[in-house]
User: Fold these one by one.
Assistant:
Number 1:
Amino acid sequence: MRNALGSVDTVLLLGGRSEIGLAIVERLVRDGARRVVLAARGAAGGTPPVIGDAEVHLVDFDAARPETHGEVIETAAKLVGDLDVVIPAFGVLGSQAAYDADPVAAAEAVAVNYGGHVSAGLSAARRLREQGHGTLVVLSSVAGVRVRRANFVYGSAKAGLDGFAQGLGDALHGSGARVMVVRPGFVVGRMTEGMSPAPMSSTPGEVADAVIAGLRSGAETVWVPGRLRWVFAVTRLLPRAIWRRMPR
Amino acid sequence: MTFLTGWGRTAPTPARLTRPRSAEEIAELVRRAPARGVAARGLGRSYGDAAQNAGGLVCDCTGLDTWSIDETTGLVTAGAGVSLHDLMAALVPRGWFVPVTPGTRHVTVGGAVAADVHGKNHHVDSSFGAHLRSLTLVTASGETRTVTPDRSGGDDGGDGGDLFWATVGGMGLTGVITEAVFRCVPIETSRVRVDVERTRDLDQTLETMAATDDRYRYTVAWIDLLARGGRMGRSVLTRGDHAARDELPRGADPLAFNPGPVLKAPPWAPNGLLNPVTVRAFNEAWYAKSRPATGLIQGIAPFFHPLDGVDGWNRVYGSRGFVQYQFAVPFGQEATLRRIVARLSAEGVVSFLTVLKRFGPGTPGMLSFPIPGWTLALDIPAGRRGLARLLRGFDDQVAEAGGRIYLAKDSRTSAATVAAMYPRLDEWRRVRDEVDPAGVFRSDLARRLLL
């Protein structure tokens, strides 16, 4: 249960090796979370990482197999009880050039970045609705706020995910369960290794800090860094003729 | 679905709320309990999440509101939903008083049992559970059982005592309490004869209470937590006894019970209305106003329940609500109490009403809070930065000292902390698991603390 001061007891991380996801989990544990489930491909049977003094469970999870997602949520709830925070943090970036050359790979990436989140998100939502409490943290991206020609396959999947998360949040309104949409800019980390950072980039730790602050305050939307909210309020309005000339 | 919170107005969760009117109706509800379980609720005065049940069923028991008294013995048989306010309004004019009243009259008998509440007379009269003759509860199987404090009594023969003492202080998790029988005390008047003293610091407060508390039936100390340095822990002691008839002015109705006009707190207050500036000003004024006096004659309401004079005072803390932190440490562990008061004073923690009380003997309730020693209770706005860490630090010190925090007031501690503070938790779990093997009785508090 989330307590009066915003600390939680349990966390489920789908995409249990995600840098951002683990950074969030570490902070939740530091703030009092005691039971953690890390779900990732081929995770079961491995040695759980040490995260503070929390009890950590490993569970198999394949983002590309939506038919298994409901069961993963149930397994996690059996292991740790009510799920206070669920973080689907799986995803692939990929380059637009590579997707242009390989449409099948592009479709597979979208299936994970969007489709996987739909099945995982709906499965988690069903559980949270039954519980009458809990927060689904959806890691969207500014790439989906206005899709750019430089990465429109990835961006369009994030656009879909962002819309899905908003709709799901509205659907859960009044149930006690909540959805928090997180929109980071460019995140300097493993996923973006070798790329030159865009302006107003952040680190996985900074994203995690913003998520924690958002969970405490009960925010519906979190931008990282916060000033991207205002930047995108403007860029959303730019004419197409200008937008398509964006260098990246 | 209805969103419910405790008195601190933090962490709301939705539940299906129902208001049964009889034990039979409750039994039927329990037999058809939903997967998320059943929690009992009274007047919602627990500060945290004890009477909430996210996604499940919450039984508002205030419909069990019938009671009777045997005036030859003072034994009261009351439905779980009867409030102490209603009892006092009817009993005081007839010359009877409840054996124990907490700082508010607006609690139900069921809640008083489930939290094993204490009052200003704990040092001589112990807590509510000590005055019970029997309890009736609907257990997980849907049967109605009457249990007594001793092992020989009860309608189930031998093991009555265990279920009784698991229920007293058991936070409603052994079953839905439907009725209680307890002995009231005779009074000559509805007034209290009060002595007021001021102390200059914490040491003098503790010394005075230890030396002279036993001369009074009712005692409490209000601490000015914002006083620092040499004045740290300065207090106002108010101590008294039921006044005798000949102590009242001539012509006064000796047993009149008029709680007085009730002010209404504004429906909304900004977060941060209670801040170091406003609370320091209040504390200064309160300390200055509380002039030493002896033999003051006060009514029951202003003496026992000053906050009941303001309806909805909990809203003054703003939309974020507040947490109440109440702990007890055994005698001999005054150093822990001093350290915590010093830290609160140094941090400038804003607590509107900080109360210190000397506890006497506890009850055999397995999860009952009071132990012989000192208890300190404070209210803190929930939005304060660093509050979680500060209170976790206090938890550790209190557990280390062999003390505990009060479950009826808790809204933020951890399962491990409670396990460290309540040595009889496993014994309580065994009794509970036997009477409710499937975990029908659940609350948000139970989930949070893995009870």
Note: The interface with chain A takes residues 1, 3, 8, 10-15, 35-36, 48-49, 54-56, 321, 323, 382, 387-388, 391-392, 411-416, 444, 447-448 of chain B (CB under 8 Å).
Number 2:
Amino acid sequence: MSGQLDIVAQNVLWNRLISVCEEQANALMRAAFGAIVREAGDLSAGVFDAHGDMLAQAVTGTPGHVNTMAASVRAMLEIVPLESLGVGDALVTNDPWLGAGHVFDFVVVTPAFLNGKIVGYLASTSHIVDVGGRGWSAESSSVFEEGVVIPVMHLRRGTVLNDDMLRIVTTNSRVPHEAQGDILSLLACNDTGVARLLDLMGEYELSDLTEVADFIFERSALGTKKALSRAPQGIYENVMLLDGYDAPIELHAKMVIGEGRIDVDLTGSSPAVNRGINCPLNYSAAYAAFGIRALLTPDIPNNQASLNAIRVVSEPGLVVSAERPSPVTARHVIGQALPDLMLGCLEQALPGEVLAESSGALWTLSLSGAGRRQFTSLNVALGGMGARPSLDGLSTTAFPSGVGAVPVEAAEVAAPLIYHSKEFAPDTGGAGTYRGGLAQRMEVGSSIGEALKLSAAAFERLTTGPAGRQGGSNGAEGRVSITDGTVIRDKGIYEIPAGERLILQTPGGGGFGDPAKRDRAAVAQDLSHGLITADAAKTIYQSDDTNS
Amino acid sequence: MFRLAIDIGGTFTDVVAETPAGMSSVKVLTTPHAPEQGALDGVERLLDALSLSYGDITAVIHGTTLATNALIERRGAKTAFVTTAGFRDVLEMRYEKRFDQYALDIQMPEPLVPRPLRFGLNERVLADGSVLVAPQDEDIEQLAERLKAENIEAVALGFLHSYRNASHEIYVAEKLRTLLGDAVTICQSAEVAGEIREYERFSTVCANAYVRPVMARYLQQLQAQLQDRGFGGSLLMMLSGGGLTTLEQAVRFPIRLLESGPAGGVALAAHVAREVGSRKTLSLDIGGTTAKICFIENGLPKTTRRFEVARAWRDVKGSGLPVRIPTVELVEIGAGGGSIASIDALGRLKVGPKSAGSDPGPAAYGRGGEDATITDSHLTVGNISADGFAGGMITLAPDRAPAAIAKHVQEPMGIESVELAAAGIIELADETMANAARVHGVELGLDVASFDLLVSGGGGALHAARIAEKLGIRRIIVPQNAGVGSAVGFLRSPVAFESVISIISRLDDIDTQALTERIHQQLESVRSIVEKAVQSDRITTAIKAELRYQGQGLELFLDLPEGGEFAAGLSELETRFQARYEAMVGFKLKNIPIELVSVSVSAREALQPKPATDQQQNRTSEEIQTRNIYDLKAKQFLTYSVAERTALDDSIFDGPAVVSEAQTTTLVRPDWTVHRSALGHLVLERSVA
């Protein structure tokens, strides 16, 4: 089978498949509606073999789409019989349990035909701005209130677009044309991907992808196995406490590191709640796997084999494995806590090699008009990343999410808001030999003197800050208040009266190592830069030189 | 009377003179501490050789990497940043996201201005340009005292929404100028890069302020020294965007000089494209460490306003400082002659981005380099011969190359022969470069297969044919003197200046009259800059509108007519945008308003007429020699004919063949033909479908 020449060709083909996905993802990113989606790169693109196994995926894209997409292609092919697919057909769904965990994410899958036979599939996912329901908040008590759900169906049959399906979406969406534009972009980018895939098969005179798939899976499996062997085999458990909607939620993990694979069981976590911060297991698994892979196998590309090495299971019906009809809009509140939960297990396996806890879930800043002028504005407020074993944590930078903030100028052009300030908050990075990343303090109000409505759904870690490691201190917990004296402690809906402002302070990253061992020059610089106060320098870092 | 170009790079300074008799050049070492010395030394040597004097020079055209180096090495002025109170950390917060998802040890670049030197001033302009809080004189006076106490050399001013209403920046700048005196440089963000998005604008103004004192001193020094020696012509500077500007503008906006070297290279490619009548050209420059690609349409290189300088973490995209300046749109790929082939953790063959550079260089250089590089692979398969490499400057040790490939690639991967391993390395490098061109082409909405491939650099002509095959390209151009580089490009560049106005308004909301007025004012201003160096009847101007569907990020550029037809042009924008969008994306959207994001106006010197052609030096054909070259597809050696470039003429020569010359080797693969055009450029054409 594999001749010598094939090794070179296989290498070339693997690179090309990744490049096909990159092209798809780039095209999608630029065509996406909604600033937050573009900033986020909240999308993904991948190429699959004839069995529905993922061969390659674009490196752009959020961790939440990584594994979910690999699973959703299979799930969709189980629902639609293979024989019924023809040239030009494309399938679509936004079912949270088949796609990426909430109704906003649409997945489109397009088969690639060569000589009348399916040789592979192209898939892409992206976040659609609005699909009806209550919009972006955690207030729904079931998924039925969260927007329109499209079961797996044809988006296109041959050359005929499924206008009925598009009309259902556009009829239910607050921004119908944008929603339609985004869905059509998924279709168009898959078409480009199919053409590229067939080009490369032509160039290398391939009639199927079996040989290249074998090569990719074999190399990835071997590489993953080798990389995982760095962590000693054993059973490691970790528990994390989150604020929850209005009552604490416990996340529990039992991680079994075995020979070339890691099994995670989330059983023991709190049961699902009746507000939209629940997470379907597919999305939990995606983020759990991301945390493990970022630490142990960062250089191995995403594909079926590299993902197969990490299995995440749970008893159903928990906050990490919510079942229909649990509400799931803000599922990232739970999902994005999972990497830290995993890293806590790995810290026991590899003490001293694991970064401290980060601020976790993105603080989605969802503001809308509560006065005469109607508008909605979505942004994110980022906290600090945990300190690394030999580096400070990154300040105001999301981890595990890859999402960035919308620029203040762009946010103010898009909605009648004034950001009055946005600055580092001193003493919020957990103290340590390596300091946790700093949080930020922001003040936001209306620019037209009207009341605002706020969804606090994603303001997590208001009770306990992210934990430090190896003697490092916790990062500061987040704080949210309104200038009228209201202090926000749950994830509900709040009104900011006319003339008042919202004050946000995100959580800081945890510190790493004993603060007394921090490099003195680094302490002095933090002090002169105003990142720590003179008091902290003296009492926590035990620095005598607090004059600068 | 003649023109002279000076290109100061990190290692070498090139000086090129274009006299009626042709091009002459000299290469000297760069003198980093006083770069003008090396340059003047080179000029003097060239003048001596040509028996000409400074008085004979009509124009000196200069490009330099000095501003870039000052940013990379952090050797700029002590700079303060003054911004809207509450926002002094914008510069350090950046995009607030990681540029690599999986690398947990990434680091962000230190901001050019440290936190203690970033000051918030109580003032605020809103998104619609209205004033919420006006700056107070008392605050400015206090600030000036702080700046004096810190011995600040340069002040960057950047207030929120100044792209919409710059009055606060202007007012504070004037006040500070009075309070601080002329010795302190003051730069305003709306003037340097008047575009929305505070981080990029602030980053650009800080970079400009940071390099301006250094660059101003240097440029004025160079001019004075040239004049002392009798030079009476004009000194023009090469810009990142591919045009030339006056010294006065260069001193105000030195940040626009950043990429002048690469821009010169692209300018030369664009010139050759015009000469050979190539309307769609993909320029590929393969050097020792990297390859650069740029798309050229109708003889004009694609430009962008997004650029990143001084990458701080493993040269990864996103780890540098963003600057919003007009720049020739180059995509850089970590693959060049010195790129190292290795086996990664998955047992995959990998080429680059690590490079052996020129020291120790490829294994075949015999200077202690142990790694298997692309150059070693070319030597092993027979694409290049051991003698005469790089014009005879480097003698290759032929046995070291296969030994390195055997050790690092062939044996670990269990490949049957060293030639096959070498051919595999080259194939992978070709694939990497072709992929980059393909992805970039998609981004720009271009059909790469319909382009000609124009190659330069030492390795361009070796890789061209295979890359063209991968991209479906059917014509390749290997310019005469492909190795002489950027300096010649300077001589082929028009004087030009571009300026951008941020608008962000729905097309149906635009006050046409006010916009027309604003654009024509701006047009006059860029025109007057170009007029300092070019006769007004030789200036052309252009207006480009940047449009998108409201809420979307895919921005398209469309040309707008000038003068009386401007308003009519504006009214046609919607239809034209829809058509372009559909051509690019595959469908168009109904009922979504279209937004005018910005308008850029530019003035440029009309493209120069063709220069005198080099004299043809037709030699009689010597007897045809042959060389064996290993072929990856055939898995065996094939016989290639060998021809000297000078021996070719306009008759068609069939591949497989190699065409050799001092600086490079052109590989004419099977199914390709080659001939030499009247202007001396090699043209390769694919002979089969």
Note: DSSP finds 16 helices and 35 strands in chain B.
Number 3:
Amino acid sequence: MTAILTNLFDGVAYGMLLFVLACGLAVTLGLMNFVNLAHGAFAMAGGYVCMVLVNRMGWPFFAALPLAFVSSAAIGILLERTLYRHLYTRSHLDQVLFTIGLTFMSVAAVDYIQGSSRVFINLPAALQGQFDLFGIGIGRYRLMIIVICGLLTIGLQMVLAKTRFGSRLRAAVDDPRAASGLGINVPQVFAFTFAFGCGLAGLGGALSAEILGLDPYFPLKFMIYFLIVVTVGGSSSITGPFLASLLLGIGDVAGKYYVPKMGPFVIYTMMIVILIWRPNGLFGRTAAR
Amino acid sequence: MSAASDVGHSAQRQARWHYGEVAFWLIVLACGFAFPSRYLIMTDILRLALFAMSLDLILGYAGIVSLGHAAFFGVGAYAAGLLALHGIVNEPVLALIVAGLAAMVLGFATSFLVIRGVDLTRLMVTLGIALLLEALAERFSNITGGTDGLQGIEMQPIFGEIPFDMFGKAGFFYSLAVLFLLFLLARRIVHSPFGLSLRAIKNNPLRAAAIGIPVNRRLIAIYTLAAFYAGIAGALFTQTTAIASLDVFAFERSADLMLVLVIGGTGYLYGGLIGAVIFRMLQELFSTITPQYWQFWIGLVLVVIVLVGRQRLHRWVLYVPNLVVKQVAGRKAVVAVPESDA
């Protein structure tokens, strides 16, 4: 019984992490309809920035996290302004090719700068180990992830639903032409959102180094997970991707624990079945876009 | 002349063999005799060319974007490997066909999943299928050999007459023969009414359905055929290298294949063949400059190609040949700029 609960807890932490990693992609792919397979590269960038700051320069872990966000967001906005925006109107094939190219470049570049082996971030002692709560083993680090990611999710939902920027974004996504007719600077809104999504990915990358492992092949290894979150979750709100992340996280952890030999088999099968059953995602809009 | 016969006339003229095509195949054949020390890499190029032609059939002619074409390559590779290893089918040509059929069955089964949904769903489903097969191959390592791959494959002589030699000469000519035969078949298919209907579907599925083309059935048919081609390419891989390992299913293989086709151009069968040659040469060049980081440059090539625009790029590349043709023959270029795709 306690093993189940511990697994559930780990799965929730994993799912929350996936959500932070992938929710930027939910915006670009789901809302802006841009297939960005290079999303994992931004996450990796954040992870490596955090690693360098903490391990090499001796920064405290919690000070390095915001910087991971900022650096990934900066790379994001730079690439968006110079390269990505030319491709919004192009075919999906072009977008796929372009972002695969970027992914390959990022993999080789990080390999060149930091070497190909897996890196670890030195965690403060307060985050290591686990404690028992009513007999359930709870990892401190995972608990922190759940807290941070939970707060982020609530914050995102509030921003999207309550603020002026949130309504601008929703308007720009629903109908870019009408939105720009109303005086909303659509490219600016998209650029900002893209950068913010990249920043979140960077933060997720930094947080995930401990759990998912961080090496130059991170963008390729986890690409499919991000895509699953978005395509299964749909794009009508951030609730869909959030639930999909939790489902995926819990499913993956449970799958690895109970049927270790089946590996990722369960996840892929689930994804294909869901996509066949509901091509727009479990929680997506029913109308075809 | 009525419209129908006009269309037929134009289609027939398109289907006729050009001198350029004959020259192309003669050059390929001549390469086989001119560079006897390069058989291994040339065989590699032929295999890649066949694989790219398979993707071209669905991407260039039917507009199906696939990120998991390696699935069929892998099935073909493992099928050929297992057939040879356990001595089920010893004759290579027969084994090749059986392996191709195995991939074809998978292609037929998964085509129903692929024809549903739009681009994005197709990308995800094809990618998912390839990953699924990779996971399966890893899971059943007692059959596939797991990460070590199938080892100790010994190929019997072709038709019981021509043995595979260690310089790869027999392998090269065998691959070339297979490629040429399958090319002839593909050429016949894309110029047939069936092939023309595929182009109609690619340009506008709704309109194609309105003029009475059974869209889904045509897509299933071409997807199944492409799977057969990819399976043959995979089987050739196993037969000429005597190894099949998990990386036949790898995502990089599918991604590289896209690059091959993008370099060569989609929607005309030579795109895959030319792309394979250029891609392999680029890869060789980059890996001699930077052995570990060649992937960076491959990525850069992809990014640049997309940013410049594929159609513009092909216009530039074909500028000189077209100019020559115009000067010499005094008519419009024979080398057409490939149509825009997907």
Note: The first strand of chain A starts at residue 130 and ends at 133.
Number 4:
Amino acid sequence: MELFFFQLLNGLGLGVIYFLLSVGLTITFGLLNFVNFAHGAFYMVGAYVTFVIVSLTGNFWLALLIAPLVIGTLAIALEQSVVKFSYVLEHKYQILVTLGVALMLQELVIMIWGPIGKNVSPPSSLAGIIEIGDFIYPKYRAFVIAFSALIAIVVWWGLEKTKFGALVRAGSENAQMVGLLGVNITRLFSITFGLGGLLAGLAGVLAAPLRGADPFMGVEALGIAFIVVVIGGMGSFLGALVGGLVVGVMQSVMSSVWPEGASLMVYAAMAAVILSRPRGLFGRA
Amino acid sequence: MSLELKHCPILIAIALAAFLVLPSISLATEVLIFAIIALGCSILLGYAGLLSFGQAIFFGLGAYVASLSQIHLGVNFLVGLLIATAAGATVAALVGALAIRRQGIYFVMLTLAFTQLAFFVSYTLDEWTGGDNGLLDVPRNSVDIFGFEIAIDSSEKFYAFVAISFVLIFLGMIRITHSQFGRTLLAIKQNEERATALGYSVKWYKVLAFIFSGSITAYAGGMYALFLNFAPLSNVELIMSEHILIMAIIGGTGNVYGAVLGSLFLVVVGDMLSAFWERWLFLLGGILILTVFYMRGGLISGLYGVFEFLSQKFGSASTQKES
């Protein structure tokens, strides 16, 4: 029972990271109707920027502050230089363009830091464990859960309660109409794309002390993000949250029962959801 | 037969030229094998308009089945390849029939999920596939016909076998793409609703395209395992699907010779560049982006552009156009 609870908590920790990873993907899809195969690369570069900052300054908190901003800037730069020219193209060409971007980022990272992964240690203040009665849990993982929950609330607030969020939601309904109402829609697009990248980068920062940084984590993360977005429903904030938690808990609990089966199951779930209910749990039809 | 008469010499010339011009016989073998694989992708993308991340399933399956049937059933290499082809056709029918139930991005996602499933299944069944280490010591059991033994025990003999397969498969696919079937696929790609309204069973055409694509990819995957004497797990990775796609697109889809150019480009340029610059895939990503933006028809359309320019310039009526 205790082990199960431990795995459940681990799953929650994984799940909130998956949420941060996926929420940008799902919102850019909702708003721009755009499929970004380079999204996983933002997560990976986020982990590497964390590695650099931590190994230079030894300060994880600095990385937590700066790395997401770096990735957000990178995302906006890519949007301005490459991605925005593919909005007019068919989905399959958008996929190919962003696939090219992902490949370039991955190879660039290997050129700079080599193909072998790097370890990132958690901040010393979060190094130990928490004891609640008999139950012990790593401090850093508890921090990840709490911090991500906070970010999730901020993102929800931003989408639901601010003017920017209202524009994003309106744009998801009908981008052309929002443009006609005098909103600078191209700027809205690039800011949203940048924020999506920023959140994926943040997921990379939080994941770095847990799993290190390696060049191929982006591809893996992209697969996970697609599963989450598909299960939750494309374009849905709530879908990304619930989908992320479901996938995280499923993987974590399965990994203690049947490790190889964990990934098998989530991809089978993804295929089953697309076939039986393509709009996912919370997506619009 | 005129179609075959026209293309047969070109294909034989390509196979001979690859043998004579390329620096090593193993490079030439690889170019022809991947040309078949790129062709499999081109049939789906260029003719049926289906962007699939599922080609690695058929590639890996072909490699495993051709190897395992030789190891466990003791069949000769030719029968092994035929069993692999049949397995490829069967799985492609299944994957295709499921995937085409959704369109656009959902179709892409389904093929992606199926590839990941195939990967983790292969990884889990390590008693059969060797898991992470791959399937080692893949034999090339010789064919025995009435006491005549045909063995492909040298790299020259193996190249000859691959070249014959290459010519026959390309001729077959040229025949199919020029048939009513190929024309209908193009019609579906251009306007699916119109094709449906005209009474074509769009689903069957798409599944058939999957079957053709999957079977030749599995055959080529089997040959690749025989070539390496090894069937690595990386055959079924998503990255393999991506590479196959990139190969087909850079070469140019919708034209069978685009597949040859794509394979030639990736295998040969990759081989040359990786010798002194391991991270040449960086360049490949850039080329993919440029191809989508500026040369959607791929290298083959560029080549035709040059031909047309030359024929206009010199006013000769005998254009070299080969379509």
Note: Chain B has one domain: 2-279.
